[in-house]
Amino acid sequence: MKHEMTTTTFELEGYQVAKNLGLVRGITVRSRSVIGNFGAGIQAIFGGNITIFTSLCEKAREEAFEMMMDHAEKLGANAVVGVRYDATEIMQGITEVLCYGTAVVAKEK
Predict the structure, then answer these.
(1) What does the alpha-carbon distance between residue 60 and residue 31 come to, in Å, rounded to a whole number?
(2) For the segment 71-85, what is each residue's pLDDT rounded down to a tens digit?
């Protein structure tokens, strides 16, 4: 499945939904390492973007997105609409990242 066939909206320009295959999701749980926390603490002293955490967050979102895409592909979808992310801190320093949407079969208009 192509990443271009995903959207946060419920429509794909130039396509119509031929079949709704239901909810798909990808979930990953991440923790910060002691070394990562130390490095982020040093960066926090100087202010600005804390790149260690930015990188961790981006990696978690990407992993959850790819899992969602795999789930959709297994259902026979060629597109995912209504894509959303959610994150929950399960316990201090451990976060769940969820990416979800609706798997569909989209046909060109």
Answers:
(1) 10
(2) 999 999 999 999 999
